[in-house]
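Illustration 12: 3'(2'),5'-bisphosphate nucleotidase.
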Amino acid sequence: MESKRPLYIADADFDSIPETAEEGAGREGNNRRSGQEGRHQTSSSPFAALSTMSTYDQELAAARKAASLAARLCQKVQRALLQSDVQSKSDKTPVTVADYGSQALVSFILQRELPSENFSLVAEEDSGDLRTASGTETLRRITEVVNETLANDGSYSSTLSAEDILAAIDSGKSEGGPVGRHWVLDPIDGTKGFLRGDQYAIALGLLDEGKVVLGVLACPNLPLASIAGKEDSNKGVGCLFFAKIGSGTYMQSLDGSSPVKVNVSATENTEDASFFESYEAAHSMHDLTSSIAKKLGVKAPPVRMDSQAKYGALSRGDGAIYMRFPHKGYREKIWDHAAGCIVVTEAGGVVTDASGQPLDFSKGRHLNLDTGIVVTNQKLMPLLLKAVRESLEEQVSSL
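Figure caption equivalent — predicted structure in token form:
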């Protein structure tokens, strides 16, 4: 049965989206992030220096549509995971039909919805493995599921060929950089979570002159209710978070409910703070985050979750801190953080590297940063950075 078509707002008027009294009360502090009077006031966010002349409404509408349809494709594949849907890339990382299909679909939709733009996409996958004899069946399945998703949506009359799919995937080979506009995509962030049936996200952001100006996170397996257990757990599953520079962060269901504004946790007491970290120990040093949490006096155990769904959960206050400290030699990719970064920042949070510097997405496909990434609210960040610095110094002295 065809699922309910998601709601898309073609020219999003954020000022017309209602908010609760609690959210209105929280705006006074959060609106220090933007550069206008009233609802959009001066911003301390690293995204605020960009000119507000371009509102990015059309780009955000296209991004929301692309991420929503990619999420629908991923849900379909996950429900009927076939043996041929999983293959190994040369680095042995599992990659799925949904991973390739998501990238092809997002690329196709962005180019259809924004035909006048010079299209540049920085994305994780390329079609190399699919062009080999062993990839023939996988390519056939990708082509099938992309066309099924497009047909069910009904917005496009196109039927894509295998060559169209390969070309769409390979449109993601851009190197990004500080000049012009570049879309940044992780077609399935959290592939291992996807294969386990756990959390994953379709993460799509837009860079303009090296700054992230909008971001969308589609999180098909994230409950609409807080995972901190403070809300009705019967609200359903499947969230779409979206943020645009100077306009705050909003969440709606993937089925298309009305968007609601979200804000990061306002807690100022580290003992009351819970923290997120990567599910896989190979992705982050859990012993280091444990040491930092101990210094902060955090009492709750860590919430371990795959993908940028952590950024989405943090943006609505499910937890107060996210820490990521990859093992030595690992270089962070921009698609693993671009969308999540603006989703949290526009919700009132702060995202920096371990030394307190904002993330710089203008250097190409990788982030050049100090040691790791930390995320929290403005009140807790000084305390968090102090604990990070002390724990890192202790780690060095113990070697």
